[in-house]
Specification:
Largest sheet: 5 strands, antiparallel
Strand order of the largest sheet: 1-2-3-5-4
Strand content: 35-45%
CATH superfamily: Histidine kinase-like ATPase, C-terminal domain
CATH architecture: 2-Layer Sandwich
CATH class: Alpha Beta
Shape: globular
Order of helices and strands: EHHEEHEE
């Protein structure tokens, strides 16, 4: 049985910080020997997750990303830390994002609360949360 290893990263909830998340995930993918196709899918999914989280009707302060590898495989969880301000405009459609993410990653779980999408978990193997 493989020992669980966890990596955490917190970035401001702004589009330009998606690059920081992508860079960190790229390194994690190399460490965990992901092939190029799985790596590309993971990075594209990360972009979609960040886009979904930053386009809510309530301001986000930070996005926390946690990567965990255990016997189930690599699991990446994104969580939005809410701010106090409400935003003008429309939030991104979570169902559309779920459909896009499901074409890239084997198992996707989107969590919501009273303000909108709060968290997204990606698992590169069949669903076993």
């Amino acid at each position: 049985m493989k020992e669980s290893q966890s990596i955490r990263l917190s970035v401001p909830a702004k589009a330009e910080y998606a690059l920081v998340i992508r860079t960190a995930l790229g390194g994690i993918g190399v460490i965990h020997n992901l092939d190029i196709d799985r790596m590309d899918d993971l990075l594209a999914a990360a972009d979609e997750c960040v886009d979904l989280l930053i386009h809510q009707t309530r301001e986000g302060l930070a996005i926390d990303m946690t990567c965990l590898e255990d016997e189930k495989g690599l699991k990446v969880h994104f969580e939005l830390m809410w701010g106090e301000k409400k935003r003008e405009g429309r939030e991104v459609d979570a169902q559309m994002s779920q459909a896009v993410l499901s074409t890239l990653i084997a198992c996707v779980n989107i969590e919501t609360d009273e303000y909108g999408v709060k968290g997204i978990t990606l698992l590169q193997s069949p669903c076993r949360f």
